[in-house]
Amino acid sequence: MYSIARNKHIVILFYDNETEGNPVYRSLLQALNDLLDAVPGAPKFTFPEEADPLSPGAWIIAACRCDFVKAPFPNLNHYLPVYPRLQLGDDWEPAVAQVQEKLQKRIASCQSRLRALADEESDNEWQESLAQHLQLWERKKVFYDLLIGMDLLPSEVPADGSCALWSLSAMMAGCAIRTALTTPDKIEGMRQDRAFKPRNTFVK
Questions:
Q1: pLDDT (0 to 100) of residue 203
Q2: pLDDT tens figures, 36-64
């Protein structure tokens, strides 16, 4: 896998309905092994050693649904990079403020548009669609607030089916996706990279 080829540990922060409260850490390989338990005769994978999730050698990726509704692990279909406060240092507070301000603006904008539509007695279908969009942003804020409360900063990546690759690229680039370093063409190149194919780094 891409991270193992670069001597990095991926730690997954699961936002599923099997846990109460804050998301929980699990190693990627442990999550894979749990899935393999249902496959008779499937090999189990091990990694030489587990990394501390907050260590520089670990990449934290949050796993959730794209609509931020809690669901079983197999139904989690969105991934985004997460950065510990310890790694961000003095950049933590301004970065958190920027994320929170953006979420608040999105929510306020949806609320304002809903009020305007109600006053205009507009199409009910349009109001329903906007109300669902508002709920999505509110659920996203709940999720982000949980992570920030854990001293973790989530960073957005495109929800285009390649979110895991965007997340890996963001980890390599720093606490943001830099246009000069990451493009859709480069993401496709990562898909074709031999590092994504099975390697003997895994021990059966």
A1: 27
A2: 777 787 777 665 555 566 666 678 899 99
Question: How far is the C-alpha of 40 from the C-alpha of 84, rounded, in Å?
Answer: 38
The mean predicted confidence, pLDDT, of the chain is: 77
In one letter, which amino acid is 195?
A
Averaged pLDDT for residues 95-124: 88
**Average pLDDT score over residue span 143-155:** 93
What pTM was estimated for this model as a whole? 0.76
158, 31 contact by CB (below 8 A): no
81, 170 in Cβ contact below 8 A?
yes
CB atoms inside a 10 Å sphere around CB 12: 25
Measured CA to CA, the distance from residue 55 to residue 57 in angstroms comes to 5
Q: In this predicted model, what pLDDT tens digit does every residue of 163-176 receive, in sequence order?
A: 888 888 888 776 65
Cβ proximity of 30 and 46 under 8 Å: no
Cα(204)–Cα(200) distance, integer angstroms: 9
With contact defined as beta carbons under 8 Å apart, do 80 and 23 qualify? no
Please give the helix or strand (H or E) that residue 146 lies within, else none. Answer: helix 124-149
Q: How many residues does the chain have?
A: 204
Cα separation, 204 vs 198, whole angstroms:
12
Ramachandran assignment for 105, one of left (phi > 0), alpha (psi -120 to 50 degrees), beta (any other): alpha
